[in-house]
């Protein structure tokens, strides 16, 4: 049988046409964005100097590798956000549980805290805590930034936790009660393990918000990533390059965080 | 399959970055061609528009708001006079100091009249006219934290904290003058003053007469550690690069107005008298 008469089945690894069309669309949109950017900067007559940026990320000196100013700022951002994240979870869970108790005082306090925080701008809260409360209490700038951030994000996290807890099936509560569990072990062994799984996705987006909101602490002279960016900008006027770089760093950090959580979700999938 | 998709996406993103990167090379050259003197001067644009747009930020007594919410101050007088001599209306565009040069470069206004001192770094991005005034930096310190200090060396140590306004020459001067001190950068002058009164920083560095007035206003809490200003900075108009006609007009305006004594007169009024105090309180 001559070879050319053999009809091959279509190979399973062939890329379907729809994918190709989608890719083409994607490339077209991105090209349009790139063209718009270049036209815009051309019209401004802006003088791009990307080659001045790497020194702010890190450089090799005679003493070895040294992190640049932006990366030092990122270190401070990491410190602030990691501590705030822990506090946010504690405050959020505490407030959620307070709102579900039978004591009207606890419910009132939790409700008041949540409404005040959620209905005022974060920037004002940071200013208030830094300029008004901190001098009275003798708190450093670094800690007042952390307190402001964790209070703000905690109010949102509390609602997420409450939604997760109330979404647990009534049968679970009844089963726990019928086993004679009191409320502390019931929450610890039955309710919270299930609720945490459900609230992981919205909590992740809250954590991403926290990282982005931490940029606001630069307004009270904390040397975080944004403040370092502003200082370099004020000295060198590399406005566009610096802010694109800073935005890219935030993007990378938040993407990594989302990726980690996605892996966690697959591990503990319900 | 997921991996393939991820890899493709990464490749595409890299390609995009490359395209943008490459597209910027010709942009620079084109911008260079654009800067040829054949193009119309900003001067003509302003005259056609009938309005000169002035960028500034509030610094007492350079520019501030009075009781009716109108802007008054030395720079405001200068801008009004300049517009009058040009035969156009003036429009004020208040802008955060730390972003004022990018705002000029992106065409939000025609000129910066805001007590901007000449620095080599700034001059790389904008053109400066000849100076129309000189201002000096000074230090105001907290009596409780830094009482009795009269030497720069007493402030130049890691235990000392100094608050300055971001983007001002005070920030640069402090880095050179007190390299070992810890420096806090704020967006507003009022915030640096608040820090000083809250006794969280030892000193504030700013252009005179602010430190002088502060020491007068709070004699129990604040004092001036140094007798003399430690800098004398030339203050100029800043305009976009590549426009010799506009710059020439500004330079000659400064010469002309100085020869009439008008600039000196206004400077005396705003910096050495308190006659305007009742307009703002």
TrEMBL record, chain A:
InterPro entries: AA_ABC_transptr_permease_3TM, ArtM/GltK/GlnP/TcyL/YhdX-like, MetI-like, MetI-like_sf. The lineage of its organism: Bacteria, Pseudomonadati, Thermodesulfobacteriota, Desulfovibrionia, Desulfovibrionales. Residues 74-261 form the ABC transmembrane type-1 domain. Part of the binding-protein-dependent transport system for glutamine; probably responsible for the translocation of the substrate across the membrane. It is a multi-pass membrane protein. This is Polar amino acid ABC transporter permease. Keywords: Amino-acid transport, Cell membrane, Membrane, Transmembrane, Transmembrane helix, Transport. It is found in: Cell inner membrane; Cell membrane. It comes from the Bacteria. Belongs to the binding-protein-dependent transport system permease family. HisMQ subfamily. Coiled coil: none annotated. The chain crosses the membrane at residues 23-41, 76-101, 122-152, 242-264.
From TrEMBL, chain B:
Residues 61-106 form the Ionotropic glutamate receptor L-glutamate and glycine-binding domain. Its main location: other. Residues 51-274 form the Solute-binding protein family 3/N-terminal domain. It is found in: Cell envelope; Membrane. Residues 51-273 form the Ionotropic glutamate receptor C-terminal domain. Keywords: Glycoprotein, Ion channel, Ion transport, Ligand-gated ion channel, Membrane, Receptor, Signal, Transmembrane, Transmembrane helix, Transport. Pfam families: SBP_bac_3 (PF00497). It is a multi-pass membrane protein. InterPro entries: Glu/Gly-bd, Iontro_rcpt_C, SBP_3_CS, Solute-binding_3/MltF_N. Residues 1-17 form the signal peptide. Transmembrane segments: none annotated. The keyword Glycoprotein applies. Belongs to the bacterial solute-binding protein 3 family. This is Amino acid ABC transporter substrate-binding protein. The lineage of its organism: Bacteria, Pseudomonadati, Thermodesulfobacteriota, Desulfovibrionia, Desulfovibrionales.
């Amino acid at each position: 049988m001559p070879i050319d008469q053999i009809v091959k089945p279509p190979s399973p690894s062939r890329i379907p046409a729809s994918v190709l069309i989608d890719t083409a669309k994607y490339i077209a949109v991105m090209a349009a964005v790139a063209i718009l950017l270049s036209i815009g900067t051309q019209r401004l007559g802006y003088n791009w100097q990307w080659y001045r940026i790497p020194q702010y990320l890190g450089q090799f000196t005679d003493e070895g590798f040294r992190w640049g100013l932006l990366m030092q700022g990122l270190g401070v951002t990491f410190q602030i956000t990691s501590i705030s994240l822990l506090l946010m979870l504690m405050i959020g869970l505490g407030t959620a549980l307070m709102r579900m108790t039978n004591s009207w005082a606890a419910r009132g306090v939790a409700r008041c805290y949540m409404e005040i925080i959620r209905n005022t701008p974060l920037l004002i809260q940071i200013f208030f805590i830094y300029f008004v409360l901190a001098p009275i209490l003798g708190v450093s700038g670094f800690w007042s930034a952390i307190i402001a951030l964790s209070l703000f994000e905690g109010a949102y996290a509390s609602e997420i936790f409450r939604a997760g807890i109330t979404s647990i099936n009534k049968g679970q509560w009844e089963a726990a009660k019928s086993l004679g569990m009191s409320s502390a072990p019931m929450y610890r062994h039955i309710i919270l393990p299930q609720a945490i799984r459900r609230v992981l996705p919205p909590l992740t987006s809250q954590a991403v918000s926290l990282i982005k909101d931490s940029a606001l602490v630069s307004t009270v002279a904390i040397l975080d990533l944004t403040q370092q960016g502003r200082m370099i900008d004020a000295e060198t006027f590399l406005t566009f390059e610096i802010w694109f770089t800073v935005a890219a760093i935030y993007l990378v950090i938040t993407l990594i965080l989302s990726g980690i959580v996605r892996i966690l979700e697959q591990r503990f999938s319900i | 399959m997921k991996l393939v998709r991820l890899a493709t996406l990464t490749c595409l993103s890299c390609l995009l970055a490359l395209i943008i990167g490459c597209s910027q090379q010709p942009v620079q050259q084109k911008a260079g061609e654009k800067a040829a003197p054949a193009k119309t001067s900003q001067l003509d644009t302003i005259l056609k528009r009938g309005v000169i747009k002035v960028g500034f930020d509030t610094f007492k007594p350079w520019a501030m708001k009075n009781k009716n919410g109108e802007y008054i101050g030395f720079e405001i007088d200068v801008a009004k006079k300049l517009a009058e001599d040009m035969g156009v209306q003036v429009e004020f565009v208040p802008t955060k100091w730390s972003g004022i040069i990018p705002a000029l470069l992106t065409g939000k206004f025609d000129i910066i009249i805001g007590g901007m001192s000449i620095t080599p770094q700034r001059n790389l991005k904008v053109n400066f006219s000849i100076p129309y005034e000189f201002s000096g930096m000074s230090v105001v310190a907290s009596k409780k934290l830094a009482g009795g200090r009269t030497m720069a060396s007493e402030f130049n140590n890691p235990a000392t904290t100094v608050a300055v306004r971001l983007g001002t020459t005070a920030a640069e001067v402090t880095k050179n003058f007190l390299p070992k001190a810890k420096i806090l950068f704020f967006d507003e002058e009022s915030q640096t003053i608040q820090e000083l009164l809250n006794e969280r920083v030892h000193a504030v560095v700013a252009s005179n007469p602010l430190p002088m007035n502060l020491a007068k206003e709070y004699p129990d809490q604040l004092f001036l550690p140094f007798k003399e200003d430690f800098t004398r900075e030339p203050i100029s108009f800043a305009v976009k690069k590549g426009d010799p006609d506009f710059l020439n007009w500004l330079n000659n305006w400064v010469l002309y107005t100085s020869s009439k004594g008008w600039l000196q007169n206004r400077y005396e009024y705003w910096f050495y008298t308190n006659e305007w105090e009742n307009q703002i309180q």
